[in-house]
Amino acid sequence: MTTNQLMFVIFSAVIIIFSILTVTSRRILRAATYLLFVLVATAGLYFLLQFNFLAAIQLTLYVGGIVVLIIFSILLTSHLGDKLEAPGWKKTVPALFVAVFGAVMCTITILQYNFPMEVITGSDRTKIREISYSLVSTEKFGYALPFEVISILLLASMIGAIILAKKRKD
Asked: How many C-beta atoms surround the C-beta of residue 1 within 10 A?
């Protein structure tokens, strides 16, 4: 087993284990921390595949921004010892059915798809300079304006959620 294969197995195991822990944890702060580990391992997979730009975006945007925002919101709105109530069987059985159905559909789709082997030459690759210009461009097909609008929307929804959570009477 090569080093790349070993790292792939490690990252995959971390993603699977912490994904399960994220959705089964009854403590909300722990679930957010487990989500952090999943996103960091996903960035590790991107680095392993030599998608350094995508890995940097994963670490910066999701790990550095979204998870920190989630943890900050949890700490503002709930006590650290709060536990979510355990779901009853009326919620567990349909959720398990949907999860198994989704896993079977994904497996069938992956096994039936014929993955072609294509060699990408140097001239076919997108240049990093073109990607960076399109990310900061405000012109057609630019991403700066939609990114800022989504940032404002996320901030407004987070402020609204905090205000609603603080209004509850215990």
From this structure: 7
Q: Which two tokens stand for residue 16?
A: 């699977």
For residue 20, count other CB atoms closer than 10 A to its CB. Answer: 12
User: How many other β-carbons are positioned within 10 Å of the β-carbon of residue 47?
Assistant: 16
- What band does 155 get if pLDDT is binned at 50, 70 and 90? confident
Question: What is the distance between the alpha carbons of residues 152 and 139, in angstroms, rounded to a whole number?
Answer: 20
What region, left, alpha or beta, does residue 114 occupy, with left being phi > 0 and alpha being psi -120 to 50 degrees? beta
Q: How many residues does the chain have?
A: 170
Residues 6+ apart with CB under 8 A from 14: 37, 38, 41, 44
Q: 77 CB contacts (<8 Å, ≥6 apart)?
A: 161, 162, 165, 166
Domain ranges of the chain: 1-83, 87-114, 125-170
**CATH code reported for the domain at 1-83:** 1.20.120.1200
pTM score of the predicted model: 0.64
Query: What token pair was written down for 138?
Result: 């405000």
CA distance 39 to 27: 19
